[in-house]
Amino acid sequence: MLRRLPARHPTHLNPSASFSPRRVSLTPQACREFEANVIILHHSTTICCGYQPVVHCGVLRQSAEMIEIRGRENLKTGERAIVKFRFLYFADYLVPGSTFLFREGRAKGIGKVLKVYPVNATTSG
Hints:
By secondary structure, the chain is mainly β.
């Protein structure tokens, strides 16, 4: 029979220390625009700039407009691209690296936040 050995806490010198695999700031920033790597799971036709799905990321739920699709004009089911989104109503808090789902009716897609543009760095519009 195997005995379980007590685990030595890696932060035995400082119990309030935390570890991060990369030195990335995990503090959420209020942003109006963000870039994400997305994949379209299902859509009956094509998606182009101006598409306005509802973005779900944790407790965040807000409509956002696709304002730029890098390297192509439109997206179909199963295609991937880097897309720039703009929230329609107000700035919200996002952390780079977080995953999200976006949908509109029966159309669905998933994505991962690559970069956020803080409110003071974006142009109002």
